[in-house]
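Run folding on both entries below.
>entry_1
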Amino acid sequence: METNTAGRQEPQRKKGGRPAKKVKRNCTVVVRVTETERLLVRGKAREAAVVARLSPEEAALLRTLSGLANNLNQLARLAHREGLLSIQGKCRLALEEIDRLLESLRKR
C-alpha cells in the first residue's frame, strides 16, 4: 500500500534521550582578585562548607556493608529461583551481619 505524501508534512518525531532543561546556565562569570582576596575567599569557602568526612574505619565499614548488600541481593535471586527454605540460614546470617555493621555506624 502506497500513500501519497506529496502534500502532507510528516509529524516530527522526538529524538529521545535526556529531556531538555527548562533553565539553561549559559553565562560565565570571571572575577579578577588579588592573591590576598583569593586566600580570603578560599578561607570563607572552607568555613562555609560543612562536609562530614568518614574516617578510614567508617569507610571500611561502608565497603563491607556494600559487599553484604550485594550478597543479600544474590541470595534473594537464589531464593526466587530455588525457594526460600533452601537459603534461609544464609539470609539470616547476612541480615545479622548487616544489622551489626549498621549499629556500629550509628554509634559513631
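>entry_2
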Amino acid sequence: MFSSSVRTQAHSLPQNLLLASLPADAFARIAPHLTPVDLHAGDVLAEAGGAVKHVYFPQSGVISLVVEMAAGQNVETAMIGRDGVLNAGAALDGKVSLSRAVVRFSGVAMAIASDKLIEAAAGSDDLRSLLLRHEQVLLAEAQQAAACNASHRTGPRLCKWLLRMRDIAGNDNLMVTQDDLAEMIGVTRPSVTIAANELQKAGCIGYRRGVVQIFDAAGLKARGCECYGIVQGHRTAMLGPHAPVAGPPAVAVSGRSRRH
C-alpha cells in the first residue's frame, strides 16, 4: 500500500530516470495515469508472445528479459531498472511481447495501462521519441549480449554484469547469490565462483553469502570486456547526455523476497 504522500511524490518527482528526463509538458500527459506497484522477485510481468496490458517504469529493483530454451534453461538478454521501461515498444505498436520479463530483484515501479500510454504518446512527440529510442537501446543491449556470450570468458562477462547492475541499482552493495549470477550470465556456478574469487583477490569486490560489494568499479572496467562500454555508448547516443551512469548509493538491491 502507498500513502497519498508517496503517490504525490511519485507523480511530481519521478525516480525513474527516463520519466525524469521528460519535459514537463510530456510528463504531465503521463503522470495522472501512473500507479505505484510492488515488484516481487519471481513475478512474471510479460510472456513471450503474450499481449501487453501494462507498461512499467521501475524506480528500484531489476527486471530481466529472458529467452527460454528447449532444454529448460533461461538466457538473459537484457536488464531493465531505474533507467528504463518495460513493454513500451510492444504497447505502442500494439504487438505482443518478444521476451519473457521476470522480476530479478524486488523493488517498486510506476505502471500505466497500455492504452493510456498510447494516448499520452499520441499527444507528445517527446514521449513517443524517448520510448522508441529506449527500445533501440534494448535491442542493442540484446545483440551485444549475444556476441558477448559467444566470445568472452566468464570473468570479463561477470565484470560487465556487475557494472550494469551497479548502474541500474544505484548502489555498490548488491544482494545477489552465486546461483543468481550463474543464471544471469549463462554459466555454471563453479565458473562464477572461480571468477568471483579472482575479482575478490584483486580487491575489486567483496563477497559474503548473498551480498556482493563493489570496491573498485574502475578495476572492474579494466578487467571487463568491451561490451559494457559499447552498450553505455549506445545508451548515451540514443538517450542523451543524461543517460544514467553508475552512481551509488541509493538502497541496496533486494533479492528473492517472495514468489507468486
